[in-house]
Amino acid sequence: MNANHSLTARWRSLDGEGLDHVTVEVAQDRLIARGAAIGARGGAPYGVYYRIDMPRGWGVRELAIGTADGRGLHLLTDGQGHWATGNGEPLPALTGCVDVDLAGTAFTNTLPIRRLDWAAGQSRELKMAYVPFDSFEPIVDGQVYTCLEPGRRFLYQAADRSFQAELSVDADGLVTDYPSLFSRVL
């Protein structure tokens, strides 16, 4: 992304009614992703807005999520796997997580895809700070990404092998197709 460029994307949920809309803007030396997601998971409806602040290298530094009913979460990270609340209280349970994965959005798959250099056939097991939209209580989630075709296709797998999907991405690393979960509409 160049200094005068922003990205906008929208996905629809394939496992129910839902939409996720995000815009990523360049602001001086960082990227700011702002999004809104509505839908339902496990029968529980959600409507959230989120903001993820990152340096140009796509590593998370700050995450803020909120809902219309006033619930929210604010997390800070040093990009080296150390997390804290927005008030600075350490969160040792998230140690080792570099990226964040938000339930209900395909956007956060872009973070490790853009942050890391990939070669065809290369696999990496990553620890994510996963944030479910029903509780906003982050947990560690192991995920494996395998580059099938650099800049175009990745295999995503839960580390416990309970789920996998082949992700297609555009030239900006944004998911265009996430079988069984999301389809890009913008």
TrEMBL record:
It comes from Chelatococcus sambhunathii. This is Glycolipid-binding domain-containing protein. InterPro entries: Glycolipid-bd_prot_put (IPR009467). It holds the Pfam family Glycolipid_bind.
